[in-house]
Amino acid sequence: MLYRKVPKNGDELSILGFGCMRLPTRDGQIDEPRAIAQIRSAIDRGVNYIDTAWPYHAGQSEPLVGKALQEGYRERVKLATKLPSFLVKTREDMDRFLNAQLKKLETDHIDYYLVHTLTGPVWDKMVALGIFEFLDQAKADGRIINAGFSYHGLPEDFNRIVDAYPWEFCQIQYNYLDESYQAGVAGLKYAASKNLAVIIMEPLRGGNLGRPTPPPAIEEIWAKAEFPRTPVAWALLWIWNSPEVTVILSGMNEESHIDENLALAGQARPGVLNSSELELVAEAGMTYRRLMKVGCTGCGYCMPCPVDVNIPICFEVFNNFHMFNQSDVARLSYAFRMGGDLTDGVPGYASQCVQCGQCIEKCPQQIKIPDMLSQVVADLEDEGLPQRLDTMRKIMLKQAQ
User: Fold this and answer.
1) What domains, with CATH codes, occur in the chain?
2) Number of Cβ within a 10 Å radius of residue 325
3) Residues 6+ away with beta carbon under 8 Å from 152
4) CB atoms < 10 A from the CB of 158, how many?
């Protein structure tokens, strides 16, 4: 494992952090024994930055992390969680959430505490409610050690938030598709110039950049490389190539993913990619942007939908339909995954959307979700949908016998 230093406090953080938003599940709940084993295994192999948040896994991520960090593991890591700004209505709420998080995480302090999902307007609301006083008080009484924020807003608001408080760190979405999105590369460099540690989220854009079998057009690009690498390696090494990056958060929920990421984290020094390799990544980014129809990362903040549309899965299948040149497979997958067989009989089709707009307010990617759902309907809900659902049900019934 390699480590990078936090400029303002000297902490040596593992360049790979364990993100706890997408832990392994079983029967709709976190698979606790497996998740705990995964987290502890990563710590045993050098990971020392663990990231969670109030809403992850419908509120169950923080208690799971608290359990995983028992038996001496808490002392070996820097623990990060987040104030749910979207739920804060008063100054008192800030203390209430933090104190509840300390109990759920079974700890007396949070090493790296973030104001969650900031945009310009959300930040202005937090300032009006007293965020400066809260952070100062929580640091003074030892409940938090370092203060930071995670950002999901427009590029023009990022710098003013960086300058508004003596933050130790920030967290931004960054990958080779998002160089100009939200904070982007300009925000990365600005934050680093102000001596903030920069934590990277969505390095694989919801897993899309790490698919073992990428679209054919992307495979052709990687095939030109002198030294073969996996799609995950290209994505992560491209980020670590920048010295301004401190930690990459990876939502690892498969043991093989953990193994691969740890292996990469042992070689990811700045400059790990040469100029020709960087040109290939740039070409892959342009190609993905051409193929990908909707920039959904699968974070799930838009959920639950009041009419039960399964928005992240709709967009996942929609992107697959356009990226992988497997229209029949995508349509079968859509029929079965949206048909209700996997969700206690509750269908999740895009056509159920009533254009209420609630999802737009929640989406960190600022996607015009109802408009995009209309495109999903046009491509994936033709007259053959009922027949495809029936076909998939017969296939699944046969496999179960």
Assistant:
1) 3-290 (3.20.20.100), 311-400 (no CATH)
2) 13
3) 117, 118, 119, 173, 182, 364, 365
4) 26
Structure tokens at 365: 């990617």
Enter the pTM of the model: 0.82
Pair of tokens at residue 158 = 């990022």
The tens place of each residue's pLDDT in the chain, 401 residues long, gives 999 999 999 999 999 999 999 999 998 899 999 999 999 999 999 999 999 999 899 899 999 999 999 999 999 999 999 999 988 999 999 999 999 999 999 999 999 999 998 989 899 999 999 999 999 999 999 999 999 999 988 888 999 999 999 999 999 999 998 888 889 999 999 999 999 999 999 899 878 889 888 989 999 999 999 999 999 999 999 999 999 999 999 988 899 999 999 999 998 999 999 999 999 999 999 998 888 889 887 788 899 999 999 998 899 889 888 887 778 888 988 998 888 877 778 899 999 999 999 999 889 888 999 999 999 999 999 999 999 888 888 776 654 44
